[in-house]
Amino acid sequence: MNFDELYIMNPWWRDRVAIYADRNILQYQQSKFKYDPKVLFSGIDLSIPGIYTLRGPRQVGKTTFSKLLILRLIESGVEPSRILFFTCDMVKDNSELVDLVKLHSQTFASKEKMNYIFIDEITQVPNWQAAIKFLADLGLLDNAVVLLTGSSAYDLKISTERLPGRRGVGKNLIFLPITFSEYLETLSVHLDKLDLPSILALGEDELKIIAFKYSFIEAYFHKYALSGGFPKVIDEFEREGKCSDITKAIYRDSVLGDAEKYMKSRERMIEIFEKLPDIVGQRFSWQSLSNDLGPIIRSVNTIVEYFEFLAYSFIVSIVYFIDPSTKEIRRNKQKKVYPLDPMICSIISETGKKEIAMPQIMELLMLRHLMMPQDIEQTALNLTSGPYFWYSEKGNEIDFIVDREGVLIPIEIKYQNRINKSDYTGMKRVFGKGIVATKDTIGKDGNIVLMPIWLLLALMK
After folding, report:
1. Which of 288, 311, 452, 453 has the fewest CB atoms lying closer than 10 Å?
2. Judging by DSSP bridges, how do beta strands 336-339 and 382-383 pair with one another?
3. Domain CATH for 163
4. 3-state secondary structure of 144
5. pTM of the predicted model over 0.85
């Protein structure tokens, strides 16, 4: 990459109003569904130097977020030349990464005022942390807010570098497909939110009143369950009633391209996608999966590597068994996997030529809503910090268990027409409390709350 290419990616250097003609800004302004990631905006202090990372799946909106932040800076009066943006798709190594930032620093950066550096898809550059550490040690980031975005956390698995002592007020941020609550807020539907302990404390009359009060949102939920939480996909559903083949192809090709880059085999990833519809939400061991994939991938270690790649690339979640008595996970026990979002389910289903059933989609939506940023900051969707699940040797199982301030809360998804006491007997016996996310049943049995999943996801804080 040369300086001419930097000028192309930073047209506001020549003309500050050029930001309004940026492709990402135009697409955002023309969208019917304009998601405003307030949490991300509030998570970055633009007045104090700091190095931030923003990770999340491809096509979720990280680049658009960067451009919206640049727009805000320019509109606030920041001199455009103090704002550097470039994408790492064509950056060959970390030395070139250093050179690009040095070039801007020597040409445009201010020593008295804050500078702003946006580096998109930095995880494409091997050993990028060493480059940022070197720039920080040179003092070139002392007066800068730096935002580094990436569609993978795989580098966290293979590298021990964490920029110790060099981040200022910076921190790690996560951008996942939006929750149902965020979906409603974007459509100007505002509800009073509750945390899980507060939901558990609701009485049956309160549950019925809340369900009646918010009954109108069930129609919104059915649309959300089809589109999932990728803002661009939601916008396409608003316009066309479906996710376009082009969007699916872009995502599928990027996933397979990353598999080829990191795992050296596109074909094996396709074979795993063909197997995934059979195991979503089902307990399995790596050994049993190895037996099923037999001629394709014989090594258990290789299978683990592929699924960890999927987890660190924000594609598939790996959920682990937790021992309620010790609150420790047991890696040697069976585990479960779920695609992150219905859109990813659609890609997997088309690749494997087998649909993922609606009850499993409801489970993965619940899992997405139970994820806390601090749980996935370092391990992405390899959920060693929760949410978890539990099963007994007799076959009883609880779909998800979360730890809220040291208290384990079990959650079972029963997306079916009728609910029987036997559906939550294990939850009641082992934990004495819990939440059953239903299709339309509302009620309370002792310390067991039964609530439609559309209402639960809408209310969850």
Report:
1. 288
2. unpaired
3. 3.40.50.300
4. strand
5. yes
Report helix, strand or coil for 326. Answer: coil
Estimate the crossing angle of helix 128-138 against helix 94-107, to 10 degrees: 30
Residues 212 and 247 in one domain: yes
Residues 166 and 200 in one domain: no
End-to-end Cα separation, the chain, in angstroms: 44
Shared domain check, 383 and 330: yes
The tally of domains found in the chain comes to: 2
Residues 210 and 164 in one domain: no
* pLDDT (tens place) for every residue of the chain, 461 residues total: 677 889 999 999 999 999 999 999 999 999 999 999 998 999 999 999 999 999 999 889 999 999 999 999 999 999 999 999 999 988 999 999 999 999 999 999 899 999 999 999 998 898 899 999 999 999 999 999 999 999 888 776 555 455 655 666 788 899 999 999 999 999 999 999 999 999 999 999 999 999 999 999 999 999 999 999 999 999 999 999 888 888 888 888 877 777 777 777 788 888 888 899 999 999 999 999 888 876 667 688 888 988 998 999 999 999 999 999 999 999 999 999 999 999 999 989 988 889 999 999 999 999 999 999 888 988 899 999 999 999 998 878 999 999 998 899 999 999 999 999 999 998 999 999 999 999 999 999 999 999 999 999 999 98
- Kind and range of the H or E element at 282? none
Distance between CA atoms of 22 and 249, rounded to whole angstroms?
A: 23
Determine the distance from the C-alpha atom of residue 332 to the mean position of all C-alpha atoms in its chain, rounded to a whole number: 26
